[in-house]
Design a protein that fits this description.
The complex is a heterodimer. By secondary structure, chain A is an all-alpha fold. Helices cover 74% and strands 0% of the residues of chain A. The two termini of chain B are 23 Å apart. The interface between A and B is medium-sized, with 17 and 21 residues.
């Protein structure tokens, strides 16, 4: 194994590891190209853009979002789901996982923002929590769907 | 059983066994499922499936691990035309 500080973040399986490294590298290259184009236009066309326009959150967001999307659609997350029974079981477990994560999101949100005392403030916490749970479930659902399809194709004939 | 018949038909029709079929044949001869082989070589079933379908080229490290588990040499499994 190549020595790198990234190793502790990467899975043991070499195919999965290679794919994730590719996704991260693609994100880095695309970001470099986008930033180069952006700096070219802002300096040559003398756009009046101050240095705070490219916020670090955009850079971090791009790398995370690109890597996540590629990871979901590559179907490498649920490597052992190849039968209908396993698929249904995993889907149920995904619902429980999304609900649990949503519960912790609600608790942390409540700790930092304060727990609701009236109906309006309750909506302020419940709304983002429901949105978070929906988005989280959608991500793992798509990932499961893609993994299942890929695994079916690779199943023993 | 059907796997072996299909691979034998491949040999009869095309004359040689391709690299990926050889690995699959060796695994079936050894009586292992993709999942069992995967857990023995510390990979996933998906990775074994991809190698057998010729969609992923494994590292030498993984090739050796697979060859050892299947009691074959690297030539037996991964050298074309042998």
């Amino acid at each position: 194994m190549i020595r790198s500080f990234l190793n502790f973040l990467l899975p043991d399986d070499e195919y999965k590891r290679t794919r994730i490294i590719y996704f991260l590298a693609e994100a880095a290259v695309l970001l470099t190209v986008i930033l180069f184009i952006f700096s070219f236009f802002s300096s040559w066309l003398e756009w009046d853009i101050d240095s705070n326009t490219i916020h670090p959150i955009i850079v971090i967001g791009f790398i995370s979002f690109y890597t996540l999307i590629r990871y979901i659609f590559s179907g490498i997350e649920f490597t052992d789901v190849s039968t209908k029974e396993q698929y249904v079981k995993q889907r149920r477990s995904n619902i429980i996982q999304a609900s649990s994560v949503g519960f912790f999101f609600f608790i942390f949100h409540g700790i930092f923002e304060g727990f609701p005392s009236d109906f309006e403030s309750a909506i302020d916490i419940v709304g983002p929590t429901l949105f978070f749970v929906f988005f989280y479930y959608l991500v793992i659902y798509l990932s499961l769907k893609r993994s299942y399809k890929k695994n079916r194709e690779l199943l023993d004939d | 059983m059907y796997d072996i018949i299909y691979i034998m038909l491949d040999i009869l029709v095309f004359g040689v066994v391709d690299m990926t079929s050889k690995m699959k044949l060796a695994r079936i001869e050894k009586g292992l499922t993709q999942e069992q082989l995967a857990s023995r070589v510390k990979a996933t079933r998906q990775t074994i499936g991809l190698i057998e379908k010729g969609k992923y080229n494994p590292s030498l490290h993984l090739c050796i691990a697979i060859a050892k588990e299947l009691d074959k040499t690297l030539d037996d499994l991964f050298w074309e035309g042998s």
